[in-house]
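in:
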């Protein structure tokens, strides 16, 4: 997530408050972790939120092999863990890669 410092603060603060109220890795009342809160943002924060439409610009463990890296503008580090000895684990439900 990237927030514009002034204009985006309203969305960031709203999200922070919701996550403090409820943020669990389970589906409950239309919520799931910090993610389902984002679903209505294009209407809730109309004119503030931009939805990236080009899938090749956003990469993550589940789609990184489909698109050329050079086009990527951000990478979603899903379940990133920094372990002992400063090793990095990229974990997803699809595969585990250790770098």
């Amino acid at each position: 997530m990237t927030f514009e410092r002034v204009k985006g603060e309203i969305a960031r603060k709203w999200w922070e408050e919701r996550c403090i109220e409820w943020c669990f890795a389970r589906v409950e009342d239309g919520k799931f972790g910090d993610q389902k809160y984002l679903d209505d943002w294009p209407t809730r924060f109309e004119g503030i939120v931009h939805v990236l439409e080009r899938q090749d610009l956003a990469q993550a463990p589940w789609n990184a092999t489909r698109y050329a890296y050079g086009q990527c503008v951000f990478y979603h580090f899903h379940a990133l863990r920094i372990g002992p000895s400063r090793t990095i684990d990229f974990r997803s439900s699809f595969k585990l890669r250790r770098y």
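note: The CA atoms of residues 44 and 69 lie 32 Å apart.
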